[in-house]
Each structure stands twice: as structure tokens, then as C-alpha cells.
Amino acid sequence: MASPSATTATATATATATATATATATATATANGGMPNSSLYIKNLNSKVKKEELRRQLYALFATYGPILDVVATRAHGMRGQAFVIFHDIAPATAARRALTGFLFYDSPLLIEYARTKSRATLLQQNGPEGLYQAA
């Protein structure tokens, strides 16, 4: 049987390793575009493409990875060249992000990150109409 001090040392080492792994995973996720989310933020899009054409093409490109709830692309002054693709689940969003980052789309490489917050479509799907008013 191990001595109490050896057991304590092992527990401390395990706790330290777990804390280090968690901190590393969080830092990596932040450096890679935030914590995994079912919504993807896409930037470096060609701002000359019409909004409806952009939405259709993004839907066609990302739908191969899983069910999509919505594609949000606006031509407002601050949002040109950017869009959001909202997937039904995190797994297809992660697969699409890994596969399509750097993909040439209208002669520009896609820059894809996880969205900072959950989309309204995701909150509505998960919690119903009341989910939109709850603090996320």
C-alpha cells in the first residue's frame, strides 16, 4: 500500500497535469477562433458578390458537412466580406472549419473562426421561443 505522502504527491501531480491540460486546451481554442460553437464566423469574403448569391454559395459549400440552420450574410457597411453559417450541431461545424479554412472562395482564401456567441437560431432551437430572452 502506498504511503499517504506518496498518494498526496500523486494526486497533486494529477491535479496539476489536469489544470495544465485544461489551460492549454482553452488557450488553443482561443488562438484557433474561440471555443467550439455550432456557429461559424467567416471572413475575407469577396464584398462584390451579391448577398443572395453569397448566401446560396455558402450554403452549398458548407451543407456537405451537415445540416445548416441558417446562413447570415449582410452587405451593411461594417459587415461586408463577412458571414455566419449556423449548423445544427458542433461536430459538423468543427469539420467544416477544419476542412474549409484557407479554401479559395471567389478567389479569396476563407478565414473561419467559431462565433463568439450562440446564434439566435441555435438558442431558438435549443430552448424554444423563451430561449431568446434568457441570458446566454
UniProtKB/TrEMBL annotation:
Coiled coil: none annotated. GO terms for cellular component: U12-type spliceosomal complex. Transmembrane segments: none annotated. Residues 38-117 form the RRM domain. The keyword RNA-binding applies. Keywords: RNA-binding. One of its GO terms (biological process) is mRNA splicing, via spliceosome. InterPro entries: Nucleotide-bd_a/b_plait_sf, RBD_domain_sf, RBM41/RNPC3, RRM_dom. GO terms for molecular function: pre-mRNA intronic binding; U12 snRNA binding. This is RRM domain-containing protein. It comes from Tilletia controversa. The lineage of its organism: Eukaryota, Fungi, Dikarya, Basidiomycota, Ustilaginomycotina.
